Amino acid sequence: MQVFPFIVVAWILAVGLYGVVTSRHLVHQIICLIVVQSSTYVLLLGVGYVTGAVAPYFFDVPNHTPAVDPVVQACALTDVVVEAAVTALLLSFAIQAYKRFGTLDPQELAALKG
Amino acid sequence: MDQLLPLVVVVPLLVAAAVTAFGPLLRSRRRLLDLAAILAAAAVAVMLCVIMVRTAGGDQVYWFGGFRPAHGVSIGIDFEVQPISAGLACLAAVLVTAAMTFSWRYFERVATYFQALMLTFLAGIVGFCLTGDLFDLFVWFELMGVSAYALTAYRPEERGPIQGALNFAITNSVGAYLSLSGIALIYGQTGALNMAQIGVAVAKHPADRLVVVAFLLVIAGLLIKSAIVPFHFWLADAHAVAPTPVCVLFSGVMVELGLYGIARVYWSVFGQALGHRAAISHVFLALGLLTAVTGAVFCFRERHIKRMLAFSTISHAGMFLIGIALLTPLGLAGAAVYVIGHGLVKAALFLCTGIVLHRLGSVNEPWLHGRGRPLRVTGVVFTLAGLGLADLPPFATFLGKGWIEASAGPWLIPVLIVCSSLAGGAVLRVAGGVFYGLGDRPTEDPQMAREAAEETSETAGGKNRTPLTMIVPPAILVVAAIVIGVIGQLGHFVQAAAVRFEDEAGYDATVLHGAHITHPVALSAAGPTAVTATDVLAGLGSVLGALIMAGLALYWRRLPLLRAYRPSASLAASARRFQSGVVNDYITWVVIGLACLGGVFAFVIRLAGSVPPASDLTPRASRISHASPLLPAPSHNVVTTTRL
Fold this sequence. Notes:
The complex is a heterodimer of chains A (114) and B (644). By secondary structure, chain A is an all-alpha fold. Chain A is built from three helices and no strands. Chain A starts with a helix and ends in a 13-residue tail after the last helix. With 644 residues, chain B is mostly helical. Chain B has one domain.
């Protein structure tokens, strides 16, 4: 693994943040937030990747077989669980926002200002 | 091995699950569930208090599943408890207990998920305070965050809570993901997730760009959580709309937890590697000053009582950051005591505001003017808490601020007096106007009035008297803030705790080698614990300033010189443009703030010199491919031995 995954991470992060900042639709904005989080998956898996290594389960392989780092995979899995919870909650907020405000444009929500 | 340590997160999580499971079955005996939840929170508070007292003789470490470190290499997950972390967690548990007792009669119907969310929130806070693992820090952070988002939108049928929760959740989620990126980078560099282990690994080499970037990313999420300007915009939105008992926790501990996290990762992970203590101290001091002043100014011009208290929290977060950024044991000890005093006092203020909302159905200061006269006891508690917020001796806030000033030197005293006067003055203005009918009725700001009017009562019926369960908790909290301020032993205990907290080598030895350090000697002894005349003068000065500001705000129209003054509408409008309520703007500020902070870091660290020749990301990245250049891989698997 070389620089390439890091470029991809930076790109995904930048695209996601751009989306969150410019979005005019809450659901779109939440999806962009997921994109931001996706950059962390790539980063986590990227730092643990070893070229030419096998997946980290050690049943049928000879000893001293290089394996990719399982810790970051566990971290990425935890990250996915967190994302599921946050996304579900945010989407339920978006539904409520549509019911109360009649719009999904974050710039039109006008309960709080100043 | 102390078996109490895991229990403090297991108990609230299990009770939360039980309350959720039995909620539908015990619909007619709901009070049983309420009681179980309150008792669980109180039990956690007692356990944490016991743990805190025990840690005075040495840190306590608990390894989950018994995965202890071997030969100084840790693969397990630990709780590392110091007096400061246990104390902060204990404050959280006390406030949760008070808030849930308050909610006993506050909500018309307490849905069972309210208790469950409060308890998972508590578990997240306690885990965040006690954990010694960097990735777990993120996990607890998110557990706390998700519970907090849901609690903010506890009344989803209203408009304000939904918008506040959305802004809160999106801003904090972005912060959490940035933190996680930083954690991943530092793991790639060191192959470790245990904070002590990372600290040892990164300290072997001078910090390169990757470590600085990782530090910046990790603290980004924590800066957002602790509402440091310019990452603070979400806070006023969330605090203004969350149910009042929840605000108690948001203001009292959640903001402070972000700062605790910054201190924790600085001293146990990045401090030695980063070096440049003076430069880093100055950057954070500047951030703290900016936050303290901005929060105080916004606080004073706010007429929505809950929003006003929220801005006062921002101002105080800045002051805590100043205490931490001094990087001295005395400054940290001051911040710790200040956090406790502020947490208790601010909780009391929010609970009194809840009583006002319960009895009078509004939090709009102009409308309430003079209508709070029947609420005598509430008025007294609110006024006392307001004086505590203005650092009146002998409140704990006064003690903490005195230590911060003693550590910083005389230049800080006027700044803190101004901030405390503005924040305390705003609260005293409300106390005088609402509860005693002093001065003139303030002019209504149409926008603020509309917002305050949306804040409807969270209760119905039985409004002609204040239930005991609502007035006793704030009264106890205020008394506690005074009692803590006059305990003689406190100074020695907290300062020893601060020395321990900043003793990075001691932390590493305790976690990785099982050392038992009763008295850390690595650092110079902490400063004096006695209260000096300067402290008392500064405390009285800020109270006097607060009284003057409150008096001016109430009576300015009767003063000959000020009568001609008209509040500038354009100034107010321009201030409002920043606090737009649009989450897109908040994220823009986060990105801009982070870019500026990164630039400043790069600049000051380069200016301070002694940076190794710029090691580009490229060679560093190729080192990462071996997963663990500095350490044996922290893996549970056999095959990883091939990489050693």
